[in-house]
Design brief:
Elements (H helix, E strand, L loop, with lengths): L1 E8 L2 E7 L2 E6 L4 E7 L2 E2 L2 E2 L3 E5 L1 H6 L5 H33 L6 H15 L13 E6 L3 E2 L2 E2 L2 E7 L5 E5 L2 E8 L2 E8 L7
Antiparallel strand pairs: 1-14, 2-13, 3-12, 4-11, 5-10, 6-9, 7-8
């Protein structure tokens, strides 16, 4: 005998629910903005410019410029060269005439020159050294202005509080569609199908 087997499942509805919530709600605090320029004293003094002419002092020590050196020593240099040439010429002729004679002329001549250098009188001259000439080229001056500074203050004020709300939602869907199955078996019910 044939047996009718039936197996079924009912459909199921699912709900996804998101509750509404308040994320934040607060009053905006006033915000103060300041723009400040500090007061400054831009006053100061300039350095005085001094001129110092120390050439007269340096010249007394022998440090001269080229113009003075050539003026003072030009003629003396020419005379020194002429006298040196004449002395060398005389010494050369003396060597020519006396070197071949008996005795040691060259050694004796060198000894005479050495003794003359030793016996030469040297003099030190003490004199007053002139002071440098100091001049004020530009006097010191008091310059600059005073900046009194400035302060600006402003406020940002909100007219209403800040509120953020996430709205809720409900979504329905079919979680299980359900089914209905039928089949037949011979002489028994199929309880495991």
């Amino acid at each position: 005998m044939l047996k009718l087997n039936i197996r079924h499942s009912l459909p199921q509805i699912g709900l996804r629910i998101q509750h509404s919530r308040v994320e934040q709600a607060h009053d905006e605090q006033p915000v103060m903005h300041t723009n400040r320029r500090q007061a400054r004293s831009n006053k100061g003094s300039t350095q005085a410019e001094l001129g110092a002419d120390s050439y007269r002092s340096r010249h007394s020590y022998g440090n001269t410029n080229m113009t003075d050196f050539t003026r003072e020593n030009g003629q003396r240099g020419i005379g020194d060269v002429q006298s040196a040439v004449a002395a060398h010429a005389r010494e050369s002729w003396s060597m020519i005439e006396n070197a071949a004679k008996s005795g040691n002329y060259i050694r004796e001549r060198a000894e005479q020159i050495r003794q003359a250098d030793i016996m030469e009188q040297r003099y030190l001259v003490a004199g007053a050294i002139p002071d440098p000439i100091t001049t004020v080229e530009e006097p010191s001056r008091y310059v600059g202005d005073i900046d009194t500074g400035d302060t600006d203050i402003s406020f940002d004020l909100a007219s209403w509080p800040t509120i953020q709300i996430t709205t809720g939602s409900v979504e329905t869907y079919i979680r299980d569609r359900g089914f209905l199955r039928q089949w037949t078996t011979q002489d028994r019910f199929d309880i495991y199908a």
